[in-house]
Design goal:
This protein has eleven helices and no strands. The chain is mainly α.
Length: 255
Amino acid sequence: MSTIVHDTRPHAPWRAYLLEIRCELLRMLREPAYWVPVVMFPALFYVLFGVLLNRGNRAAAEYLLASYGVFGVIGAAMFGFGVSIAMDRERGYLRLRRALPTPPGALLLARMAMAAIFAVIISAVMALIAVLLAGVSLAPAQWAGLLAVNVLGVLPFAAIGLWVGSLVGGNAAPVLLNALYLPMAFLSGLWLPLSMLPDWIGRMAPVWPAWHLAQLAQKVVGHDGGAPAWVHVLALAAVTGACFALAQRRLSAAE
């Protein structure tokens, strides 16, 4: 008679989480349709607008470094969660996982870690371009601050992506996410400073969570609008909580 031995060592659950993160990262790296635009688009936009069209303008280079970094991080979080959750739900993979002996929340944690890793990659690529091509010189604390804003900024937009993924199927998710992502980026001043856009766009900007994250990044480089950081943090926390709650309710109802 065979004997089943359960691994009761304290590190066993953490090993399961780490393996889940590794598998999720490998899965996304094998999807060039995800990581190529997520990493390359903000870098290419920054080269075009921050380096070529504003050569010698240090203030513009710093502003666009912060804004295009946020633009990339938002895309990594929204598409990394939204499309994959929509496809997994459509294929019944989420129901299957509930029957597997995996730690609670492992899939959510793995995808959050994956988005955070891509936020680090995007931040590093943008920093290299800024230093080598745009002549940007920031204090070490500022570089660390930009990295922290980008990594923590994954949370609210992962929540938005999760909610969108809980609403529609795999084919509709990219369309809906793009319809939200691109206009929100433009209207939040991520592509161009709001001072260059009509006044009504600037007055509406606080409606968008992307604007609040961008303001935190701009505060690090000294180009924000002057509002206290806690205002932006509170707005992003509210979006995170609301979207996660809506997504959980939707996914629970679909069981």
